[in-house]
Amino acid sequence: MAKTDFLTADMTRRQFMKISGKSLAGLSLSASMLSLFGCSQQQVDAGAVATWALPQGLLVVNADLCTGCQRCEINCTLTNDGVCSSYISRVKIQRRLNLDGAGNGLLSGTDNCFVYFPDTCRQCEDPACGNACPQKAITTNDQGIRVVDTDKCIGCGACHEACPWHMPTVNPETGKSSKCIACGACVAGCPSGALSIVDWDAVTSAAQAAYMDL
């Protein structure tokens, strides 16, 4: 894909939704966009950089900077649940390891070595998790985030099974499902800068700068 196809002055969140949660490998990013994302073109080409489209901006993940410390998971659950638990974290590190070809499939060429890649909810426009819920407990809030109404949730796990990435997780202690609400706790807890959120105004400005430089 040419740079002119990807970085245009009228770039929208909808365009980024098409690649949300996917590696940016194959895309040629401008210097302004690389600076905004805090990565190099070499890292993009290697498939180490991915973005998640959120209502407030882009969640940028740089696998080259992730050490697998799981601080994002810890901060997520401390912030949202008051406990420290990787299992119910809305951002997934532990179960997303690539080892001997296993893992989430986002990265290639990683056999026989550990590669850490934070993974989280894509905030799908047509969420399979919400569609599968028999109680209609997953709805969209005013910010465009898919949230779980714990008063309606019966902990059946249908959302977890329906999600292609199995992101909703039923807490075995509360019997309630939870998923990412884009609170940013994972970003705040990351000590290496592997996670960042870039607001849409900044993304659009960088795209416009790249467009003007063509």
Can you describe what's shown?
The chain is an alpha+beta fold. It has 2 domains: 3-121 and 184-213, no CATH class; 124-179, Alpha-Beta Plaits. Helix content is 29%, strand content 14%. The protein contains 9 helices and 8 strands. The chain has helices spanning 3-6, 13-17, 31-37, 41-45, 71-81, 128-132, 158-162, 185-189, 200-213; strands at 22-23, 49-54, 57-62, 138-140, 146-148, 169-171, 176-178, 195-199. The strands form 3 sheets. It has a 4-stranded antiparallel sheet. The chain has a two-stranded antiparallel sheet with strand order 4-5. A two-stranded antiparallel sheet has the order 6-7. A hairpin with a 5-residue loop joins strand 4 (138-140) and strand 5. The longest helix has 14 residues, at 200-213. It is globular. The two termini are 15 Å apart. Residues 1-10 and 99-105 have low confidence and may be disordered. GO terms for molecular function: 4 iron, 4 sulfur cluster binding; metal ion binding. Keywords: 4Fe-4S, Iron, Iron-sulfur, Metal-binding, Repeat. Pfam families: Fer4_11 (PF13247), Fer4_4 (PF12800). Residues 57-76, 112-143, 144-173, 177-200 form the 4Fe-4S ferredoxin-type domain. InterPro entries: 4Fe4S_Fe-S-bd, 4Fe4S_Fe_S_CS, RnfB_subfamily, TAT_signal.
Summarize the structure.
It comes from Faecalibacterium prausnitzii. The protein is 29% helix and 14% strand.
Quick one: biggest sheet?
Answer: 4 strands, antiparallel
What is the number of domains?
2
Count of DSSP E strands?
A: 8
- Mean of the pLDDT scores? 82
Strand order of the largest sheet: 1-2-3-8
Shape: globular
In terms of DSSP E residues, the strand content is 5-15%
**Helix proportion range:** 25-40%
Radius of gyration in whole Å, from Cα? Answer: 17 Å
Termini separation: 15 Å
- Return residue spans where pLDDT drops below 50 for at least 5 consecutive residues: 1-10, 99-105
Number of helices: 9
**Structural classification:** alpha+beta
Topology order in helix (H) and strand (E) letters: HHEHHEEHHEEHEEHEH
Protein name: 4Fe-4S ferredoxin-type domain-containing protein
InterPro entries: 4Fe4S_Fe-S-bd, 4Fe4S_Fe_S_CS, RnfB_subfamily, TAT_signal
Organism: Faecalibacterium prausnitzii
Pfam families: Fer4_11, Fer4_4
